[in-house]
């Protein structure tokens, strides 16, 4: 799963890779981003427009889902294209959620030990996401997850679906709606690039911000 991540790189570092040339403002780094908060996402409104950055609510609940309907933060890659709750967004409302890494807890340790998981070269990563219009008119999103790969398997059986650089543009292509075509042109990041290390249990307290000490090896 993915229930906490960090985004501290300067926006231009990850924005230019997806064709965003102008970035207004520079939000403060966030080393401990929890669900149920506004997070940075990249999406396209139409095929004629370039990608742009937006703030989406991390929690997916379509406006037609009333009352106590679930508000998941993750969607499984195995079912996201076929589930009645997600499939419309998978077709038409895909987004990228930039991050520098994410946290996962090793349940084999006692007490549970948090780890920070990221690229070995510390380059930003891009989670595959979907979004929907919420009942109040704002947009909410979910991060797609897949079975853990590479060293991430040491910590948890699931991980966010991280896209390689060649997959960023087709993932954002609003005109690309066929599931099989997407499967052929969108690929996850090479698992050999993923690394992790134990960090302080201070990350157990979701703050939404935190500081650099949260990702230092424990």
From TrEMBL:
InterPro entries registered for this protein in UniProt: SRAP, SRAP-like
Keyword DNA-binding among UniProt keywords: yes
UniProt keywords, alphabetically: Covalent protein-DNA linkage, DNA damage, DNA-binding, Hydrolase, Lyase, Protease
Keyword Amino-acid biosynthesis on entry: no
Domain of life: Bacteria
Annotated Pfam families: SRAP
EC number per UniProt: 3.4.-.-
Protein name, per record: Abasic site processing protein
């Amino acid at each position: 799963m993915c229930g906490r991540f960090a985004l501290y790189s300067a926006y231009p570092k990850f924005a230019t890779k997806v064709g965003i040339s102008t970035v207004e403002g520079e939000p403060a780094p966030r080393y401990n981003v929890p669900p149920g908060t506004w997070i940075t996402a990249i999406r396209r409104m139409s095929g004629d427009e370039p990608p742009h950055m937006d703030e989406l609510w991390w929690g997916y609940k379509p406006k037609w889902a009333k009352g106590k309907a679930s508000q998941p933060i993750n969607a499984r890659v195995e079912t996201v294209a076929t589930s009645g709750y997600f499939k419309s967004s998978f077709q038409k409302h895909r987004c990228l959620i930039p991050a520098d890494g994410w946290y996962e807890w090793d349940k084999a340790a006692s007490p549970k030990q948090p780890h920070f998981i990221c690229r070995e070269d510390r380059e930003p990563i891009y989670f595959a996401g979907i979004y929907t219009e919420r009942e109040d008119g704002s947009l909410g999103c979910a991060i797609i997850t897949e079975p853990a790969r590479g060293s991430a398997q040491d910590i948890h059986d699931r991980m966010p679906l991280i896209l390689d650089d060649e997959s960023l543009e087709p993932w954002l292509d609003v005109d690309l709606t066929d599931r099989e075509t997407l499967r052929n042109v969108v690929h996850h990041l090479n698992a050999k690039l993923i690394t992790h290390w134990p960090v302080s249990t201070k990350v157990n307290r979701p703050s939404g911000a935190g500081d650099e000490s949260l990702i230092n090896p424990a």
